[in-house]
């Protein structure tokens, strides 16, 4: 009986780890044909990134260029920001252009 409990606790632990790392890691979002940067942002990003002062989201200065945005969207970060492996080529480029035009940027840190 004791053995069973330890085993099922271990299994529950593994299941939790798989669940936790599974849910934030990868998004299976797929842009529809004719999607634009704006439609992708509204469908895939706006549920987590909300507007601030009329800007669709706020970027840190080091993130405010298309290479950094594309890298972050494709690879995600930590537990919070999922990776979007299906956003590639034109779709991720349109999304980066949309953000560069419509997102705000935090001021550079004075150092
Ligand atoms: C499930 C919630 C969620 C979704 C969906 C999401 N993000 Fe994020 N995003 C986050 C979190 C949380 C962070 C902060 C992660 C960190 O830096 O540790 C983040 C960070 C970012 C950053 C870096 C901002 C900065 O200045 O550091 C960019 C750019 C970004 N997200 C773009 C997007 C785009 C574009 C999409 C849609 C394709 C998207 N996110 C979808 C949660 C999300």
What does this structure look like?
With 111 residues, the protein is mainly alpha-helical. The chain has one domain: Cytochrome Bc1 Complex, Chain D, domain 2. It is built from four helices and two strands; from the N terminus they run ααβααβ. Helix 2 packs across helix 4 (89-102) and helix 3 packs across helix 4. The longest helix has 24 residues, at 2-25. The protein is globular, with a radius of gyration of 18 Å. The relative contact order is 0.19. Bound molecules: heme C. Heme C (HEC) is lined by residues 44-45, 47-49, 59-60, 63, 69, 72-73, 77-78, 80-82, 84, 87, 95.
List strands and helices in order, with pairings.
Elements: H1 2-25, H2 37-45, E1 58-59, H3 66-75, H4 89-102, E2 104-105
Helix pairs in contact: 2-4, 3-4
Bound molecules: heme C.
Heme C binds next to helix 2 and helix 3.
The number of distinct helices, counting runs of at least 4 residues, comes to 4
Radius of gyration: 18 Å
Give the mean pLDDT: 87
CATH architecture: Orthogonal Bundle
Number of domains: 1
Q: Which blocks of ≥5 consecutive residues have pLDDT under 50?
A: none
What is the distance, rounded to the nearest whole angstrom, between the alpha carbons of the first and last residues? 61 Å
Please report the total strand number as a whole number: 2
CATH topology: Cytochrome Bc1 Complex, Chain D, domain 2
Structural class: mainly alpha
CATH class identity: Mainly Alpha
Largest sheet: 2 strands, parallel
User: What is the H level of CATH, i.e. the homologous superfamily?
Assistant: Cytochrome c-like domain
Tell me, what's the shape?
globular
The share of residues in helices is 40-55%
GO molecular function: electron transfer activity; heme binding; metal ion binding
Protein name: Cytochrome c, class I
InterPro entries: Cyt_c-like_dom (IPR009056), Cyt_c-like_dom_sf (IPR036909)
Organism: Nitrosomonas mobilis
């Amino acid at each position: 009986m004791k053995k069973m409990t330890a085993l099922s606790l271990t299994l529950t632990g593994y299941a939790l780890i798989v669940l936790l790392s599974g849910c934030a890691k990868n998004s299976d979002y797929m842009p529809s044909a004719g999607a634009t940067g704006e439609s992708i942002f509204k469908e895939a990003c706006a549920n987590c990134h909300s507007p601030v002062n009329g800007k669709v989201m706020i970027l840190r200065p080091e993130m405010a260029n298309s290479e950094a945005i594309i890298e972050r969207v494709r690879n995600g970060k930590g537990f919070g920001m999922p990776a979007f492996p299906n956003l590639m080529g034109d779709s991720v480029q349109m999304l980066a252009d949309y953000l560069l035009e419509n997102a705000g940027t935090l001021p550079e840190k004075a150092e």
